[in-house]
C-alpha cells in the first residue's frame, strides 16, 4: 500500500511540473521571458543572451550546413556539432582504405584538418523587426499575389542594403505568425570550415536506428570542426593561407554536470513546428497522412532490410539512405501515438469552440473572425483527398530511386529539345547533372530499387482513385497482374539504370539523345505520374494551401486578441531561437519511470546484447570502461553520457548548445524522446524531453579515448 502510494506521489510530482517550458523564443525579444527564466534559476540577463552592442551568447552559435546548429568552444574557431550533422562531410572523406566513419579521425595539428567544399556556417549578426516597413504598402483590398509582390519589393531593397554592410553578409526576411510579423536576419557566412575530429561511428552513432528517438540513449553524437578566416578575420573562400577564425564569443565548458531540476537553455536553429494548426489539420495528420506515409516507408524499409541483412556491400551503400528514411518514419510513429494519447484533436476542438464563442461576442469580431472555422472545415475536407495524392507522390513515386533520378533530367531534356537554347546554359546544366549521376550510382543497387518499384506501384494502384492513376498501371495489371514482372521488364529496358549509357547519352546531349531519354520507359512512367499530378492535383492543392495560410494569418491574429495576456511564440522557421527548461526524467507509460541521465555503464550493458549490430562499441572504449580509466571525467565511478530536459526543441536543434544557469556549455542537443515527438504540433511538459550529449562524455572521448590533448588544451574547462 505504502509503496504504491509513494509511486503515485512520484508520478503526481512528475506530472505537475510548470508549463513554463513550452516555446521557442525570439532572442531579440527574450526580455519578455527573462523574469521567468531567472525564477527558474537563470543567472544572466537578456543583454547577455542577445545584444547588438556587445558580444553575447548568440555570437558563439552558428547555423551549421543547411539544417543543424553548432557552437564555438575555443578562441581559435573550434566548433562542436553532432556527429549526425557532420556525417556527410565525414562520409565524403572516407574511403575503404581510410574509413573515417569506421575509425574516427583526430587532426593532431591544424595542418591535418580537412577542408569541406560546400559546407557553410552562418553567424547571426543581428535581427530587426521590419513588420511596419514590410507591411506599410499593404491594403486590405489587395489580392494575395499583390500582397506578396509588395512585400517582396520592400524586402528586396532592405536585404540588398543590409548585405552591403559587411563582408560575407547575407540577409533574409522571414514571416512570423503566418505573416502577422516580419523579421530581417543578417548573417555573416563563413565557407572555409574544416573537419577537426570525430569519434568512430561505433561511438558517434552508437545505438543507430535501434535507439534513434529513444531514451535511454548512449550516443556520443558529436564531431568537431574549425572555422577559418582571412588574415583580417573575415570570411573567405578556402585557402591554405587562411587562419583560424577568432570568434567574438565562445562557450566555456562546465564540468559541474547536471542535477534533476537544473535550469537549461538550448540556443539554436529549430526548423519547423505547426503549433497553431486546427483540429482538422491534426486529424488529417494522424488519421491519414502519417499512417499512409508510415505504411509506405514500412514497405520500403523492409525491402532495404532484406537486402542489407544478407549483403554487406548493399549494407554500406544503403546506410545513409536507410538512416534518412527510418528517421522520419520513426518520428511520425511517435508523433501519431503522442497526439492520440494527448487527445490533441479534442483539445484543438475545445480551443476552436472557445474561439467561435469569443468571435460571436460582437459584430466587429464576428465579421473579422466568424467565417474562419466553417471555412477551415470546408477547405480541409477538400484538401484531404488531394493531400493523399501528394503523400503518395512524395513517398511512393519519389520513393522509387529510378523515378526520382529521372525527375532530375526533366529540365535538361526540355532545354535540349528547345531549338533556341543557349548552348552555354545547356552545357552548364549537363555538367551539373553529370556530377549528380556519378554520385547517384555510387550508392545505387538495382535489385533493391526494382523491388521498391514493384511494391510502390502496387501501393499506389491499390490506394489512389483510378482517375488519378497513370494509365499504364491499370493496363498492366489487367494483362499480367504481377508487379514484379512489370518491374523486371522495365528495369531491364531502361537506360536510366545503366550509368555508362546515361553518361554516354549525356555526353553529347542534343535533341536526338534527349528523345531517347524521353521515350525511355522509366522517364515515361515518371512523366505520366507527373503529368497527372500537374493537371489534376497541383493547382487546386496549392490554391487550398495558400488560402489556408491566409486563414491562419487571421486565425492566429484572433487567438492573440482573444488571449491578450498569453505569450505566444512563433512557429519555428529555421531562425535562431531560445528554449529553456529543466533537467528531469518522466513517466512515459504505466509502470515506467525514466531517470534523467545515462552513463557509460549503459554502453557496456547494451553491448552485451551481442546480436545487435548497433550496439558494438569500439574495443578501446570497453577497455577504458573495464579498467575504469576515466581520468578527470569520472563521476561516482562512471562517466555520464546523456541527459534529458524539458526544452522545447525540434529538427534543426541538433548540435545546439545546452547551457547552464551561468551560460556555460554542459551539453550538445541531439534528439528528442519518442514520447516527445508530438511537440512539433502540441507540447506537453509531462512527456516532452530533449536529449543532450553530456559534454563530459565528449571530453572523455576526445581526451581519454582519442588522446587529442591538443584539442582539450584549446578549450576553457571550468571545474
Ligand atoms: N533523430 C535525430 C534527428 O532527427 C537523429 C537522427 C540521426 N540518427 C539516426 N540514427 N538516423 O535528426
Ligand atoms: N535529431 C533532430 C535534429 O537533427 C533533433 C530533433 O528533432 O529533436 O535536428
Describe the structure.
The protein is α+β, with helices and mostly antiparallel strands and 719 residues long. 49% of the residues lie in helices and 15% in strands. Helix 17 (410-416) packs across helix 23 (511-519). The radius of gyration is 27 Å and the shape is globular. The protein starts with a helix and ends with a strand. Bound molecules: arginine (ARG) and aspartic acid. Arginine is lined by residues 84, 208-209, 212-213, 323, 327, 651, 654, 671.
Largest sheet: 11 strands, antiparallel
Q: Which ligands occur here?
A: arginine, aspartic acid
> How many beta-strand runs?
22
Q: Based on helices, strands and strand pairing, what is the structural class?
A: alpha+beta
> Between the first and last Cα atoms, what is the distance in angstroms?
44 Å
Q: What share of the residues does DSSP label as strand, in percent?
A: 15-25%
Q: What global shape is seen?
A: globular
Percent helix: 40-55%
Q: Can you tell me the residue ranges where pLDDT is under 50 for at least 5 consecutive residues? A: 8-18
**Average predicted local confidence, pLDDT:** 94
Radius of gyration, whole Å = 27 Å
Tally of separate helices: 28
